[in-house]
Amino acid sequence: MQRVTVIVGAGLMAAANHVEVLLGKARDLNTFLAAGWSDGTHAYAVSSGQWSEAQIAGVSNPAIIAELMQAGPIPALVDPALAGQAQSAFELHAAGLDEDGSPLPVPQAAPDRIIAISGSDPLALLAQAGLQRL
């Protein structure tokens, strides 16, 4: 299990909820309901929690989402089109140090991406991604 912080542009919140249910991270579509963070221009929703290796692999590999959809049963709440839209917007990054000891870059939040960052300090990661609480 690893702590993963997920940053979702306001326009992708509904789609991100469908992937969370499909991956078993949530039982309902309520993970991303309101944007509480901003980069000064756009609004974002954030979730941080423990993810299994399989869940991390699921967001980083489009084939896994496709396999879950084909293998079924798909949870009744999940809209396959929205889950696919969210999965194609997901980017997985790791926080921490590079082999030479330098910090790994944290991507800047963007309204058309869902950024998942594995790392232990969610508030520091959000600041590095250029976000402030609304």
Features:
six-stranded mixed β-sheet; alpha+beta; single chain; 134 residues; 5 helices; globular
Question: What does this protein look like?
Answer:
This protein is of the alpha+beta class and 134 residues long. It has one domain. The protein has helices at 13-22, 53-60, 62-71, 80-89, 122-128; strands spanning 2-9, 37-38, 43-51, 90-94, 114-118, 132-133. It is globular and about 45 Å long. The model has no long low-confidence stretch (mean pLDDT 88).
Roughly what fraction of the amino acids lie in strands?
15-25%
Query: Strand tally, please?
Result: 6
The overall average pLDDT, rounded, is: 88
Biggest sheet, in brief? 6 strands, mixed
How many DSSP H or I helices? 5
Spatial separation of the terminal alpha carbons: 30 Å
Element order: H for helix, E for strand: EHEEHHHEEHE
Radius of gyration: 14 Å
**Helix content percent band:** 25-40%
**Would you tell me the structural class of the helices and strands?**
alpha+beta
Shape: globular
- The tally of structural domains comes to 1
Task: Going across the biggest sheet, name each strand in turn.
Answer: 4-5-1-3-2-6
Low-confidence stretches: none
